[in-house]
Design brief:
The chain is α/β, with parallel strands linked by helices and about 260 residues long. It has a domain at about 1-30 and about 90-240: 2-Layer Sandwich (Nucleotidyltransferase, domain 5). The N and C termini lie far apart (about 45 Å). The model is unreliable at about 255-260 (pLDDT under 50). The longest helix is centred in the middle third of the chain and has 22 residues, at about 105-130. It has helices at about 30-45, 55-60, 75-85, 105-130, 140-145, 150-155, 180-200, 205-210, 235-240; strands at about 1-10, 20-30, 95-100, 135-140, 175, 215, 220, 220-225. The protein is built from nine helices and eight strands. Helix 1 packs antiparallel against helix 3 (about 75-85). Zinc ion (ZN) binds near residues 224, 232, 234 and 236.
Length: about 260
């Protein structure tokens, strides 16, 4: 079975956020132990064996609180680079969806639907390569239990919106942030995508981009949903422009939503 751990970046209710992002890390179930070990080793090298701290990219980058507040900038950047290196190992496949809030009236629903479909496409491709695997999506509990519960109920009820998803073992599940290091990596992916599209800062995504699900030079694992994607030069839109566009039209505009000026 393949597991896809997913985290979010960008607040869907904050008007200062133009983007809502879901990002995650997929891996074969038997690899989970080794990836957890790699992140544990990184933490132990930094803080010793007894110091329990989550390696959350946003906390490391913003360094408002310790242990990151008192850590020199070059060392914090090195920790982020080490995390990117773990997330870039060949056994991991990355997925992410960046939804411009002007593109979709409900960016959370759109991102949820899209990441389910992208993961399912990946599993379909494995099946075509005679490697049949079921998939399970695991979200972080604290953020999602309320936000995503309606979509998961919809999923369980086999609403047609998810009708093409064939390869999942079960409806998406939840895990606690402290229970698995894979959620640290999922957060890294979602935060890297958020920084790229919300802040035009490519530092983290540049270190991860080669590990997104890809076939024949087209990055299927990273989806950028925005009006005017045909004029966008991000890695997702650029590689997609080489073939028939799959996302050429926006959903109807949400009249109640306003973008931040500037
Ligand atoms: Zn783009």
């Amino acid at each position: 079975m393949y597991l896809l751990y997913v985290d979010q970046s960008g607040n869907p209710l904050d008007e200062n956020d133009n983007y809502f992002v879901l990002g995650g890390v997929a891996l074969f179930e038997r690899k989970v132990y080794w990836v957890n070990e790699a992140v544990d080793d990184l933490t132990e090298n930094l803080f010793g064996p007894d110091y329990k701290v989550n390696l959350r990219a946003q906390a490391i980058n913003s360094h408002k609180n310790d242990p990151w507040h008192s850590m020199p900038t070059d060392q914090r950047l090195a920790v982020l680079a080490d995390l990117c290196e773990i997330a870039s190992q060949p056994d991991l496949v990355l997925f992410g969806v960046a939804v411009d809030k002007d593109f979709a009236p409900d960016p959370v629903a759109r991102a949820f639907e899209e990441i389910c479909n992208r993961f399912d496409l990946f599993l379909k491709r494995l099946h075509a390569q005679e490697n049949t695997q079921r998939g399970l999506i695991i979200f972080e509990r604290s953020k999602y239990e309320q936000t995503l519960a309606p979509f998961i109920t919809e999923y369980r009820n086999q609403n047609t919106r998810f009708g093409q998803v064939k390869n999942f073992a079960d409806a998406p599940a939840f895990a606690d942030q402290n229970g698995t290091r894979l959620l640290d990596l999922a957060h890294l992916v979602s935060y890297a995508i958020y920084r790229r599209y919300q802040r035009s800062n490519t530092l983290l995504l540049d270190q991860l981009i080669y590990n997104f699900d890809e076939e024949g030079g087209v990055i299927h694992g990273l989806v950028h949903l925005t009006r005017g994607a045909e004029n966008c030069y991000c890695p997702s839109c650029l590689t997609r422009a080489r073939r028939t566009p799959v996302q050429t039209h926006a959903e109807p505009p949400a009249n109640t939503r306003s973008r931040r000026a500037g």
